[in-house]
Specification:
- Helix 16 runs parallel beside helix 18.
- The protein has about 675 residues and is α/β, with parallel strands linked by helices.
- It folds into 5 domains: about 240 residues, no CATH class; about 60 residues; about 140 residues, FHIPEP family, domain 1 (Glutaredoxin, 3-Layer(aba) Sandwich); about 80 residues, Helicase, Ruva Protein, domain 3; about 110 residues, Rossmann fold (3-Layer(aba) Sandwich).
- A hairpin with a 2-residue loop joins strand 10 and strand 11.
- It is built from 23 helices and 14 strands.
Length: about 675
């Protein structure tokens, strides 16, 4: 435990002990001075705090100071009643502040209590309550605003995390202030109760125990009681004022002095009006010009100087803006920002602005958040921030999707319409504008709202424009996922894995494989739509086989075999037979013989005639599978799988090629076609 922690701990325990253990008068005087100093320090900190969160300890500090003040009250009461003395500080406040007039001191004390209890504490309590309620109600909207800024690329992940933490701290602070304001309220009530206890108890003790006369007891204990009340209420007033300052500083640019001077004297012309009004009061009322004219002159001079300063400041700002613009043009670094290419961009024409505008009911930003989450769950890929912007060069209803600055997909939408896709049998009663579904290229119709129910009853799949965009964007990201993971993104995945599996990561990187080697394997997996979410299994496999080979193709095959359960569940449904297109022995032999081994790895050297025959035979089988309503899956031996995939991916990228070792033994496989030479 640190020394400062020990001091605070002893101090809190000491405050509690003061309530039961008598305190000497000398120590009591010292603690009363400490109480006044502490209250003054808290007030100054509250005045110089820019943000309420910079003084987040204030609710706890309010409790401690209130407890300290009550402990001093109890100790002072014990000394007053037992000894008839309260120390120099209490006596000074009782005689000097009250001016040796008991009635005046009592009235001053009551005024302080009323000001603190009714005016300041009541107002602070209400402000804290409303602030806490509004802060909690505004949290969902603020969170959505942060997510929107994150998706649009205005902020990064770190900035988003910091803003979320600030929102949470604000809610906690104002909630704590709402409760802590009750401390001040209770303290004011306790002060009144203690005052009457001291007065009544002092009279009884003075006359019954010490044998004083009524006048002597009244003189002695009234002065001490009033002094005790004043010496405790003045710090209480300072702290309650601090509480009011903290909770009312909602939107501050600086400390209290800065805000006052900057906002109160923002309009110099108003000072002229005030100066004129004060002058008229001096000339035409009994107040007299001797009292009013000097103040009016000060206001007029202040207004004149402020207007001159504002004009000079405005000229300096204009000159600074011009110099900055000239410097940006001349600077060779001014074009560096133009070189940055966003990983994913979504651009749309001005007619589709309502999709992204939340004020018009657009929920595109929320859908993008769900897309990123979906890709993280399905592919194990952290999708970069998707930049959304309008483009006047596009058609009003057109949108494009760009990957690293290049257009990879486009489509058109009709707002206030629905996209209806036929179940296979067209219904003549469903009439609309013929189009193609942008994600999969299926024939579809843009239908009006009046035809929607009829189309749904006819078996059509009906979706709204935002869902069309979301589906298209999701499919594009899945298709190009391998382009979105570079070495930097791989490093982020490795760092995240290292937090839970440090031994695994330390063994693999960099002693066995580099980050670039791992990235190549992940790219090849994503290229075939294999999820990389199970990084532990992937890294375990790479650590096992990375010592024997650095070839990314061979390492990928080992990883795929390790992910056999995942791959099987991806294509095979429980209780159903997996229907596949198998590779004949002649074709396998032909591919195996065409593999060329070099020092840089292996590659397939197949003659054009054989390649064309394979394309033709494979295309026939794939077409037959698609026509029967089934997903075409090619099954080959582990030795030639990756080479066959190289042939297939050129024309049939979406057709998966699996090996026997990538399927679980429990799955039932049925061959529905054979590809052979």
């Amino acid at each position: 435990m640190k020394s400062k922690d020990l001091v605070i701990l002893i101090g809190i325990i000491g405050i509690v002990l003061m309530m039961v253990i008598p305190v000497p008068l000398g120590l009591l005087d010292f603690l009363l001075v400490v109480n006044i100093s502490l209250a003054l320090m808290i007030l100054l900190i509250a005045m110089n705090t820019n943000d309420a969160l910079n003084f987040s300890i204030f609710p706890s500090l309010l409790l401690i100071t209130t407890l300290f003040r009550l402990a001093l009250n109890i100790s002072a009461t014990r000394n007053i009643l037992s000894k008839g003395e309260g120390g120099h500080v209490i006596e000074t406040f009782g005689r000097f502040v009250a001016g040796n007039e008991i009635a005046i001191g009592f009235i001053v004390f009551l005024i302080l209590v009323v000001v603190q209890f009714i005016v300041i504490t009541k107002g602070s309590e209400r402000v804290a309550e409303v602030a806490a309620r509004f802060t909690l109600d505004a949290m969902p909207g603020k969170q959505m605003s942060i997510d929107a800024d994150l998706n649009s690329g205005l902020i990064n992940e770190q900035q988003a995390r910091e803003r979320r933490e600030k929102i949470e701290k604000e809610a906690d602070f104002y909630g704590a202030m709402d409760g802590a304001s009750k401390f001040v309220k209770g303290d004011a009530i306790a002060a009144i109760v203690i005052l009457f206890i001291n007065l009544i108890g002092g009279f009884v003790v003075g006359m019954a125990v010490h044998g004083m006369s009524f006048g002597e007891a009244l003189e002695t204990y009234s002065v001490l009681t009033i002094g005790d009340g004043l010496v405790s209420q003045i710090p209480a007033l300072l702290i309650s004022t601090s509480a009011g300052l903290v909770v009312t500083r909602a939107a501050s640019e600086g400390n209290l002095a800065f805000d006052l001077t900057n906002q109160l004297f923002k309009f110099p012309r108003l000072l002229y009006i005030v100066a004129g009004t004060v002058t008229l009061l001096g000339l035409f009322t009994p107040i007299g010009w001797i009292t009013t004219l000097p103040f009016a002159a000060v206001l007029a001079i202040a207004g004149y100087r402020m207007s001159k300063n504002m004009e000079r400041q405005k000229q300096e700002e204009e000159l600074m803006v011009e110099e900055q613009q000239i410097e940006e043009v001349r600077s060779p670094e001014s074009v560096i920002g133009l070189l940055q290419v966003d990983p994913i961009e979504f651009e749309f024409g001005y007619g589709l602005i309502p999709l992204a505008d939340t004020q018009q009911g657009g929920d595109l930003l929320d859908r993008i958040i769900m897309i990123r989450r979906q890709c993280a769950l399905e592919l194990g890929l952290i999708v970069p921030v998707i930049r959304i912007r309008d483009n006047i060069q596009l058609k009003p209803n057109e949108y494009v999707i760009k990957i690293k600055g290049n257009t990879v997909a486009r489509g058109e939408l009709l707002l206030n319409h629905y996209l209806a896709m036929s179940p296979g049998i067209d219904d003549e009663s469903v009439v609309g504008i013929e189009t193609k579904e942008p994600a999969f290229g299926l024939p579809a119709l843009w239908i009006d709202h009046s035809v929607k129910e009829r189309a749904e009853l006819a078996g059509y799949t009906v979706v709204d424009p935002p869902s069309v965009v979301a589906t298209h964007l999701t499919e594009v990201i899945k298709r190009h996922a391998h382009e979105l993971i570079g070495r930097q993104e791989t490093k982020a995945l490795i760092d995240n894995l290292k937090e839970q599996y440090p031994a695994l990561v330390d063994e693999l990187i960099p002693s066995v494989l580099s980050i670039g080697d791992v990235q190549k394997v992940l790219v090849k997996l994503l290229k075939e739509k294999v999820s990389i979410r199970d990084l532990v299994t992937i890294f375990e496999t790479l650590a096992d086989h990375g010592t024997y080979t650095k070839d990314p193709d061979i390492l990928t095959e080992y990883v795929r075999q390790a992910l056999s359960r995942q791959i099987t569940n991806q294509f095979a449904h429980p209780g159903e037979t997996l229907k596949v297109i198998t590779v004949g022995p002649q074709l396998e032999k032909k591919i195996a013989e065409s593999v060329q081994q070099t020092e840089h790895g292996s590659y397939l050297a197949l003659d054009p005639v054989s390649t064309q025959q394979i394309y033709q035979k494979l295309n026939e089988q794939v077409t037959r599978q698609i026509q029967s309503g089934q997903q075409p899956i090619v099954l080959a031996s582990p030795t030639i799988r990756m080479y066959l995939r190289q042939i297939v991916e050129r024309t049939m990228q979406d057709v998966p090629v699996l090996s026997y070792s990538e399927l679980e033994p429990s799955v039932e496989v049925q061959s529905v076609g054979v590809v052979n030479l």
